[in-house]
Amino acid sequence: MDIRRVKQILSSSAEIEVTYNGASVWIDQLNEDGKTATVHLRGPLEERSEVDITELKEG
């Protein structure tokens, strides 16, 4: 995924499915470096991880 699409997803009111390593995640924020994002797994666990945005997939 690229920075432009991450920003679009963050500003969208629609629920857009994003996966990281095959797991469904929510994007919490784009980090200041513009190359990583903070995400957490969908579901009851709120554990957050910093991941490279190029590893995020839509759909």
UniProtKB/TrEMBL annotation:
Q: What is this protein called?
A: Small, acid-soluble spore protein H
Q: What induces it?
A: Expressed only in the forespore compartment of sporulating cells.
The cross-references to HAMAP family, in alphabetical order and at most eight, read: SspH
> Which family is this sequence assigned to?
Belongs to the SspH family.
Location in the cell reads: Spore core
Q: What highest taxon heads this organism's lineage?
A: Bacteria
One BP term from GO: asexual sporulation
- Origin organism lineage: Bacteria, Bacillati, Bacillota, Bacilli, Bacillales
User: Gene symbol?
Assistant: sspH
Q: What is its main location?
A: other
| Keywords, in A-Z order | Sporulation
Q: Which GO terms describe its cellular component?
A: endospore-forming forespore
